[in-house]
Each structure stands twice: as C-alpha cells, then as structure tokens.
Write a structure and sequence with these properties.
The chain is an alpha+beta fold and about 200 residues long. The chain is built from four helices and seven strands. The strands form three sheets. Strands 2-1-5 form a three-stranded antiparallel β-sheet. A two-stranded antiparallel ribbon has the order 3-4. It has a two-stranded antiparallel ribbon with strand order 6-7. Helix 1 runs parallel beside helix 4. The radius of gyration is 25 Å and the shape is extended.
C-alpha cells in the first residue's frame, strides 16, 4: 500500500500518517468483528521507504502479508478511500504468496534500500549509488515506529525454559595468547585446549 512521494521536509509527517491510516483501518474492522458484523483483519506488515534521487522525493509504503484475498481486498479498498486524493488504484499492488520464505523476506528485509538507481524508470542499468543523507533522513523519520509488526493477532506466550542454575563461587581467569593460539590460565599458564 502506498501514497504519493513527498519531500524530505514532509517525510516524517507522511510516515506518521501512513502508520496512523493503517492503524485506523485495522481498528475499524476490529470493532466490527467484536460486534459480530465483520471479519477480523490480521497479518504482518512492514514499512519501507524508497528515495528517488532524480526527483529528491521519498516514498513510504507498506508491505503486508495477510491470510486471505478478502482481507487484501478490504485493505486496498479502505486504503484508497482514506487516501483518495493522494494515491490511485494502480499504485496499490497485491498478489498471492507463491514462495513463503521469499515473500516473508520481501516483507521483513529492510526499511530502506541502501543502493539506489539514479533514475529508476530507465531500463539501462548503470552503477548504483548510496545516498547516505537520504538513508539517514529515512531512519530518523522511522525512529519512533516499529518497522516490522503484526496486526489482528497475538503470538502465544513463549514458555521460558526451566533449568537448573549453579552459582559459581570460584572461577578461573584466562588470557588468549596469539603466539600459542590458545587460552592460557592466568595463574597456572596451562593452555585451555592444547590445540596445535
């Protein structure tokens, strides 16, 4: 899900708006579901932001995996209603998950692209550049937000392993000797592994 790109000065505000819009959509359907009048929206999402060096603009957008096409359709429809003047139907893209591992990687991989083409619309491939100032702007704008998150469900609590713990009263101190390529006891100078 995406909206029109913005300048550096508008980036933080736009990222806040994108996250707020998504949260409002999910909350709207959570309330309907709790009242027995709708389905529950659930899935995983990440926010990513691209930088266009030619236009000097930033494009924050969401990558989402949901369990059904119905949920995808709802998200797209609600997104278009929310952003009616700042996006269009053609800019929103979804497809079925074909390769679970690769599609999960696509969603959780990064929040910004380190290497960027100067003109992404040109087909010819030239060397890519790293726009450090743009990456810094993106990271600063994303700072208070979770880049990767779930919505509509909670994970089951993780059972902490019960284990026996031993309190150590005495300990040995070791130092790594580069010449002997081994750890030597500080008091006895004996090697730890005796590796040759």
């Amino acid at each position: 899900l995406t909206v029109k790109a913005v300048s550096e000065q508008q980036l933080k505000k736009r990222i806040n708006e994108v996250i707020k819009a998504f949260r409002l959509i999910v909350e709207k359907y959570r309330k309907r579901y709790n009242r027995g009048r709708g389905i529950k929206l659930m899935g995983i999402k990440s926010i990513e932001c691209n930088f266009n060096p030619k236009e000097q603009t930033y494009n924050p957008h969401l990558h989402i995996i949901v369990p059904t096409k119905q949920i995808a359709d709802i998200l797209k429809k609600e997104w278009l209603m929310y952003w009616e003047k700042l996006t269009d139907k053609k800019a929103q893209f979804y497809r079925p998950v074909r390769d679970t591992e690769n599609d999960l990687i696509e969603v959780i991989k990064y929040s910004t692209k380190v290497f960027t083409e100067f003109d992404p619309k040109k087909k010819e491939k030239k060397s890519t550049l790293v726009y450090v100032a743009a990456i810094d702007n993106i990271i600063a704008a994303l700072k208070p937000h979770r880049v990767f998150d779930r919505f509509g469900f909670n994970l089951p609590p993780v059972k902490k392993p019960s284990g026996n713990f031993t309190k150590l009263n005495g300990y040995q101190e070791w130092h790594f000797d580069l010449k002997k390529t081994d750890w030597l006891n500080v008091e006895t100078h004996k090697p730890l592994s005796g590796y040759k």
